[in-house]
Design brief:
Length: 396
């Protein structure tokens, strides 16, 4: 019998999204299409460095004269810039505690760690469906988590009645995980009325929303995309926000993220700040700075910000064009809308079983996540006809 320490390491379950990305990379076929991992792609299929980001990086290269440590919470100017971007100017900063994190994933992880340490009995409510890493992290942290109804595959709107009925079971101090905009994987977001009902339900039950905001600006625009979470922040005593700069700044590999906590009082916020600093110290000490600083420079410089907002608008316009192009092409094949036309952001979720998804990969080179999620940005206009024909046949 082997006595090696590592002989007992269990097999790992591969992440469904990242393992698909690897399989696509290894596929030698020319006509393969990666509709899997949630990265924005342009009409050439590339994920370019945004112009405003490049310009900020050049300035940073010229002006930065030290790489010395910053602080456990990260750069305060970045935290202010990201807070302002998501929440505007009105949310009282003295009731907030914030840390920079390695990407949105880091923010989700630290947020759940904080809740688990603070109130171990808190239940974490996750939408069904949700980003698979939400459930994986909740499980890894040891949270007691459960699902609430969001939308069935192929639906054109989220199922508000079932969602509210499920959430009526929330208890004080429970955590309600919401996608701020561009829901992953369905693309179906709450209406303004629905956001108001969610806020009212949180007030009534004492549950605390934890908003994951990874696609701000890629739905209907920076202001509209943030309206729901701003309503929560204005109406509720407590809330948490996990923010990512991966998609809207294209800073994927730089790992730009922030965890913000809105507490009931400034005194609570002070203590939460200490707890968050400790969580960073225990995990990696200082959060990464380069990407965060670049994003802050873009947000705080009028010219760079204008350039960035224009680039974001062009990304949105491309997503809209691809959504209506795919919906039209599917309709021409006799297929229903399936939430593609009016969904927001990168994703739509099609009612496809695993066999059909495997067949689409095999015969058409279409890489689709196992839950039926497609990344609209992975499409190219000239491919819409062939993709729609393959999908329509699989959906029949
Ligand atoms: C996605 O959902 O595809 C992205 O957020 C990438 C990831 O980390 O899963």
């Amino acid at each position: 019998m082997t006595r090696g320490l590592f002989a007992g390491v269990a097999d790992s379950t591969p992440d469904p999204i990242l393992s698909l990305m690897d399989r696509h990379r290894r596929d030698p076929r020319q006509n393969k299409l990666d509709l899997g991992v949630g990265v924005y792609r342009d009409s050439e299929g590339q994920t370019p460095v945004m112009g405003a980001v490049k310009a900020a990086e050049r300035r940073l290269f010229d002006s930065q004269d030290s790489k010395a440590y910053v602080g456990l919470a990260g750069d305060p100017a970045f935290l202010d810039a990201f807070t302002g971007l998501a929440l505007g100017a009105d949310v009282p900063r003295d009731r907030m505690a914030r840390i920079a994190t390695p990407g949105g994933t880091g923010a989700v992880r630290q947020g759940l760690e904080l809740v688990r340490r603070t109130r171990p009995q808190a239940r974490v409510w996750l939408p069904d469906p949700t980003w698979p890493n939400h459930t994986a992290i909740a499980e890894a942290v040891g949270c007691d988590w459960r699902l609430y109804a969001h939308a069935v595959p192929g639906a054109t709107t989220l199922d508000g009645d079932r969602m509210l009925a499920d959430l009526a079971g929330m208890a004080p101090g429970d955590l309600l995980v919401l996608h701020g905009c561009c829901h992953n994987p369905t693309g179906l977001d709450p209406s303004a009325t629905m956001w108001a009902e969610i806020a009212a339900l949180c007030l009534r039950t004492g549950a605390v929303p934890f908003v994951d905001l990874a696609y701000l600006g890629l739905g209907d625009g920076l202001h509209t995309d943030a309206a729901g979470l701003r309503h929560l922040a204005e109406s509720l005593p407590e809330m948490m926000l996990a923010m990512s700069g991966s998609k809207n700044f294209g800073l994927y590999r730089e790992r730009v993220g922030m965890l913000a906590v809105l507490a009931e009082t400034a005194d609570h916020a002070n203590r939460v700040q200490g707890a968050l600093n400790t969580l960073n110290r225990l995990s990696y000490t200082f959060p990464p700075d380069h990407g965060a600083r670049v994003a802050q420079m873009v947000l705080d410089d009028a010219d760079l910000r204008m350039m960035w907002e224009q680039e974001l608008a062009a990304m949105r316009a491309r997503l809209d064009l691809l959504r209506s192009g795919l919906a039209d092409a599917l309709e021409a094949q006799g297929s229903a809308d399936l939430g593609i036309r009016h969904g927001r952001g990168l994703f739509a979720r099609l009612p496809l079983g695993t066999d059909r998804i495997a067949a689409l990969q095999e015969t058409h080179g279409l890489y689709i996540v196992g839950d039926g999620r497609i990344n609209i940005a992975g499409l190219r206009a000239p491919d819409l006809g062939r993709v729609a024909a393959g999908l329509a046949a699989a959906l029949r």
